[in-house]
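QA checklist item 7 of 12: single-chain prediction sanity check.
[x] sequence parsed
[x] length recorded as 315
[x] structure emitted
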Amino acid sequence: MHVFPTLENIQVAHQRIQPFIHRTPIMKSTAINELAGCEIFFKCENFQKVGAFKARGAANAVAKLNEGQKRNGVATHSSGNHAAALARAASVAGIKSYIVMPSSAPQIKKKAVSSYGGEIIECEPNLLARETTLQQVVADTGAIFIPPYDYFDVIEGQATCALEMWEEGIPFDTIMAPVGGGGLLGGTALTSKYISPNTKVIGAEPKGADDAFRSFQARELIPMQSPNTIADGLLTSLGKLNFAIILEHVDDILTAGDVEIIEAMRLIYERMKIVVEPSCAVPLAALLKHKEQFQNQKVGIILSGGNVDLGKLPF
């Protein structure tokens, strides 16, 4: 039985990370609302430090380390946003970071890690290679492993995003977040159910990487084998701790295909004039696909990040 972070833990984490993050804006689009038949409030974490909500969890995890733990730096494996977020949090704390990245990780994400002073160790693009390479790095350096999502200090940090949304005083009927490893969805569900138990919390996932959807239906963890989707930030399998939170606090998980994800991404670019990565457009894609479920509601959507390779836009 896990003891989940409490609302007080999440509020303290929010205070703790204040110096290291942006309070991101909530934006609306009349055109998208008309299309969706509901009122959508987009929480723009694409404007967050390192361009993604991951800055929150990494900042919280590093800030909670004591001096002895910080001595040999931190390490993780990540194909993207957590990698950059941890490298930045380490750099701000004046400690080293070792980041295991699959050779297939987007160039823009490798560049970001290097720019924050992270030392990149490349590995084959599969989970086993990521984990064994990481174990080796930790053994060699003595660095502390900060997992990308299946870790309460990280979940607590990600949960602060929804806390900011609730602080705006909007009476959300539903809040939606994308789900990969589940740190953002788990954190969002905790905060939202503590503050407003009747608000629905819905995860959104690409069809080509739908392990959270299948696990949620089966009520047991089904790992993802060979995911295939444009949403490169959501390729990873759902974490155990997050799955426990999701089973208890998430109302539903919806999926959308790549064509629908690209359409939603394009809609955000055209109507809102902001840059979002494919993973970020999944909740809007899922909402538009199932819009009868959301008629006349007030829906909060977390736009999770904006780290897209502009040379490879899908439109």
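[x] summary fact logged: The first strand starts at residue 26 and ends at 27.
[ ] second reviewer sign-off
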